[in-house]
Amino acid sequence: MGDHIVDPNLLAVIQSLKPYMSSRALQCTELAETLLEVLASEEARRVQEKLRNLRAEYKQTIQVSGLQKKEFRKNDK
Asked: Are residues 2 and 35 located together in one domain of the fold?
């Protein structure tokens, strides 16, 4: 599947069923396809990368904070 959010084969099957869908199902399918396009955009990739970086920084902050607390407790004894 690689870099795809959804398996392209599944998308092909869903698209082949479009002529048989009700208007509501067709609207939902088109909405899902548009959402997938947005999520696969370069802007979305940049947002994901920034979120990953923030998460990594947060984890480092938590680890440092935990180590400082442990050192403080050792010195307190």
From this structure: yes
> Are 2 and 36 in the same domain?
yes
Looking at the structure, tell me whether residues 12 and 46 fall in a common domain: no
Contact 39, 5 (CB under 8 A): yes
pTM over 0.90: no
Query: Domain span at residue 65?
Result: 42-77
Check pLDDT > 80 for residue 76.
no
DSSP 7-70: -HHHHHHHHHTGGGS-HHHHHHHHHHHHHHHHHTSHHHHHHHHHHHHHHHHHHHHHHHHHHHHH
